[in-house]
Structure formats: C-alpha cells, structure tokens
Amino acid sequence: MKKLFLIITAALGASCGMVKAQSVTYYHDASKQAQVTVMEIGAGALTPELYYTVTHNSYKKGAAGTNKNMYRLAANAASIPQVEMADSIQSYLEARAKEEALNIADRELDVAWMTEGSKIESRLLTFKNNINGLIGKTNNQEITSWQELGGMYDFAIKTTKKAYMPNSERQKQYLAIYEEITKMNDALLLRVRFLVTKNKTDRLLATMNRASHRVSENATAASNRWRDAALKGSGKQ
C-alpha cells in the first residue's frame, strides 16, 4: 500500500511539473501585441504611450495610417487585372488544347484514304498493267521510264499517308495524285495505240514493198516471154 502511494505521489508531481513547464513557456506582452496589431491592421494603440510619445512620436502619429492593410488592398487591386489576364490565358490555352486534340485526332486517323484509296489503287494498277502493253513495241529505256513513274506515284501515296496534315488537305493531295495518274494513263494508252498502229503500218509497207518487187519480176518475165515469142515467130517466116 505504501508502494502504491509513492507511485501516485510521483505521478501527480510529474503532472504538476508538466503543467508548470507549459505555463511558463508563454509570456503575454500586451505592448508588443498592440504594436503588431497597429502594424498589421492599424487598430488599437501603441503602449506604453509615454514611451512612444518620447522616443517614437513621429512613428506613433503615422503608424495607424501606414498599416499593412493598405498595402494588402493596393496589392489586391493591382492583382485583379493579372487574375483576369491569367483567367483569359487559361481559357485560351484550354480552348487551344481542345482544338489541338481535335487536330491530332484528325491527322492520326486517315479518313480521306478510306474514301479515296480504293479508286486510286485501282487506277494505279490499271496504269501499271498498261505499261506491259509497251513490251515488244518500244525500247527498254522507255518502258523503264514509265515504270519509274508508277514508282513515283507509290511514293507519293505513302508520303501523303504519313504526312501530318488534316484530312481535308490529305484528301486534296489524294485527288491530285488520282488526277495525275489518270492523265498519265491516258497518255500511256495513246502511246500504246500509236506504237501498235506504227507496227501495223510498218508491216503493211513491208508487205507492199515485197508485192511491188514481184510485180517488177513478173513484168520482166512477161517481157522476156513476149520477146521469145516474137523471135520464134520471125524464124518461122
């Protein structure tokens, strides 16, 4: 029982010591608090009054009028246009970000090729097949030139697909490529027809030349026969 009493006494003593230690950590100074209040908001009075009157009289007279609230109000008034400007910049950037997000989506998804791709590929395939019509009708250099033109169209299509541009502009490029392929395909067909016609004409002329040679030969033979007949007739007489 005596041991328990000693423990309780020691605990109470420690508790009282802690309360006393906490109580002495704060010293309220009314004059300092008054000075801080006057400096911050201009309210209250500087104490002790005699001290400030004797040693800081000019400060005492103007302290309430030069408090920090005035500076706070001035800073707040000056920041209002900045806040408005910041809000306008933020709204502009947000609108620009939305627009750019739409632009990126428009550029990444090639909708133009979905609508124009099939007819371009079909026309390009026709063009390449028509190049085969030149084989045997012209020299290899000309055929190679037409084939390189087809390769150029392939490269133009691939470049347009990879280009960072909106679908409206991409569609214009695809249509321009299609028109160019169509124009050159018509030129190729004219060239093939010309070569076919030329070859037919050349064969016809060669046939006519051979026929004209036979006429000359036949005429010479007939002349010889007529002369022989004339000689024989004159011998009989």
Structural commentary:
The protein has helices at 2-23, 30-41, 49-55, 57-62, 68-108, 111-131, 140-162, 167-236. It has a domain at 110-231. It starts with a helix and ends with a helix. 6% of the residues are buried. The model has no long low-confidence stretch (mean pLDDT 80). The longest helix has 70 residues, at 167-236. The protein has 237 residues and is mostly helical. The chain is rod-shaped, with a radius of gyration of 55 Å.
* Fraction in helix: over 70%
Strand content: under 5%
What structural class should be given to the helix and strand makeup? mainly alpha
Q: How many strands, what sense, and barrel or not for the largest sheet?
A: none
Write down the secondary-structure element order.
Answer: HHHHHHHH
Give the total of beta strands.
0
> Based on CA inertia axes, which overall geometry fits?
rod-shaped
Q: Terminal Cα separation, in Å?
A: 193 Å
Poorly predicted regions are: none
Whole-angstrom Rg: 55 Å
Averaged pLDDT: 80
Task: Report the total helices.
Answer: 8
Which features would summarize this protein structure in a list?
single chain, 237 residues, mainly alpha, 8 helices, rod-shaped
Helix-strand blueprint:
Blueprint: H1 2-23, H2 30-41, H3 49-55, H4 57-62, H5 68-108, H6 111-131, H7 140-162, H8 167-236
Helix pairs in contact: 6-7, 6-8, 7-8
